[in-house]
Amino acid sequence: MNKGIDISEHNGNIDFAKVKQNGIEFVIIRLGWVGNKNNHTVDKKFNEYYLKAKQAGLKIGFYVYSYCKSIEAIRRGADWVLDNLENKEFDLPVFLDLEDSSISYLLKEELTNQAIQFCKIIENCGYTAGVYANKNWFLNKLDINSLLNYKIWLAEWNNNENHSLGYKVDLWQYADNGKIDGIAGVVDLNKCLCNCVSENNKIENGVDEEVKEYQNGSTVEIVYSDTDLINKIGSLNKYEKCDCLGIFKNRAIVRYKVDGKNTYKVGFVKYLGGVK
Fold first, then answer.
1. pLDDT exceeding 90 applies to what percent of the chain?
2. For the whole prediction, is pTM greater than 0.85?
3. How far apart are CA 65 and CA 47, in angstroms?
4. Residues 6+ away with beta carbon under 8 Å from 8
5. 43, 58, 71, 174, 236 from 3: Cα distances, Å
6. What is the DSSP letter of 57?
């Protein structure tokens, strides 16, 4: 797998069969964007693009554009991403797109921690995760050395044979003015430089899980008896720690004390950012 495109609603109607016939092997589809007031928004073409790309036999991955200014916002955004990926079958990573000017004032440490938290939440649910940024962001606004355990997707339109980042790059967006039969107008072009494809990007139910720690965030987290999050059985206090027994259907399975002694309950919580 070598040549691919990334697309959003701005690319309009796409004939994916023609796209594949023209040598495109994979597509990275924008899921939407995540914000600071739970005002996350799905790309208008997300579901259509997914279904048609799947029908055409293309490899599929996703990205989400971020306006988030805090760890809490990015955690909630990552949970929202997972909700929208339920029942989707795909081969490539889920990327966090960091480039918006409204968050560029944040400290390097803050932006890097956001990227790490996003990737951890995505990976805790069994998917492959990564970070998208341009060369300036990777070198000056992010601590790229802290992100190399995840997939790196670089935007650098340099008209050269290779990128110039100086670090390992998994996907390289090398042009923003590509012309592909099946797409009106221009489209971003990408090369796959490493193995980003997973034969089983989603961990199947029944895989052995090690017991991990669950660290709740700054709000009370409701615990439910079901993965649909309907039947409440209790709650975790702010910053409470307990056992995490695994992930099932995008929900963390937690075991927590209910009397401060040796009585426990086991249930599901939505916030996956607490899995350590």
1. 70
2. no
3. 16
4. 29, 30, 43, 45
5. 23, 11, 34, 10, 46
6. T
Give the number of other CB atoms < 10 A from CB of residue 113.
Answer: 17
How far does Cα 121 stand from its chain's mean position?
Answer: 8
Residue type, 47: N
Q: Which residues contact 68 (CB under 8 A, 6 or more apart)?
A: 34, 35, 36, 74, 77, 103, 114
The rounded distance, in Å, linking the Cα atoms of 127 and 221 is 23
Give the pLDDT of residue 1. Answer: 58
Two tokens at 195? 């193995």
Which helix (H) or strand (E) is 124 found in, with range?
Answer: helix 108-124
Q: For the stretch 117-128, what's the b/e string if a residue is b when 16 or more beta carbons lie within 10 angstroms of its beta carbon?
A: bbbbbbbbbbbb
- Give the 3-state DSSP-derived string for 16-29, with helices as H, strands as E and coil as C: HHHHHHCCCCEEEE
pLDDT greater than 80 at residue 4: yes
> How far is 79 from 85, CA to CA, in rounded Å?
10
Strands 187-192 and 241-248, sheet pairing: unpaired
CB of 270 within 8 A of CB of 253?
no
Q: How far is CA 178 from the centre of its chain?
A: 25
The pLDDT score that the predictor gives to residue 45 is: 98
Question: Residue 142 corresponds to which tokens in the numbers above?
Answer: 């992010």
Distance, CA of 8 to CA of 132 (rounded, Å): 15
What Å distances lie between residue 36 and 3, 69, 142, 217, CA to CA? 34, 7, 20, 16
- The SS3 of residue 66 is strand
238 CB neighbour count, 10 Å cutoff:
10
